[in-house]
Amino acid sequence: MSPAEFRNRVANEGFEPPVEVVREPNGFLGSHSHPFEAKALILEGEIQIGVGADATVYRPGDVFHLPSEQDHWERYGSEGVVYLSARKSLSLSG
User: Are 84 and 61 in contact (CB under 8 A)?
Assistant: First the structure.
């Protein structure tokens, strides 16, 4: 998926405009969660996302999706990773 396609898709799905995120080579971020839904398009390098006992490696062109409050960990490849990250906050209406 191209960055333009990703931007259009997340806009149509109600996400905020994506921002570019750069993470260091061989970095690791332990178990955590976010108070928002997240989708990201990998631009360069690779990232491994782990949820429980399962882990997936994402490379350029891949998109990952994390629901709000999903516990996960992140490991960055030997060249680090650059990705476009879009967020969608929970609606508190009702």
Answer: no
- Name 11's Cβ contacts closer than 8 Å, sequence gap at least 6: 17
Q: Which residues contact 64 (CB under 8 A, 6 or more apart)?
A: 39, 40, 42, 47, 49, 56, 58
Tokens of 82: 């650059």
**pTM to 2 decimals?**
0.90
As for how many domains the chain has, the answer is 1
Range of the domain at 57: 3-89
Residue 77 lies in a domain: yes
Higher confidence at residue 58 or residue 94?
A: 58
The verdict on residue 94 lying in a domain is: no
- Residue 94 has a pLDDT of 38
* AA identity, residue 14: G
- Tell whether 24 is covered by a domain: yes
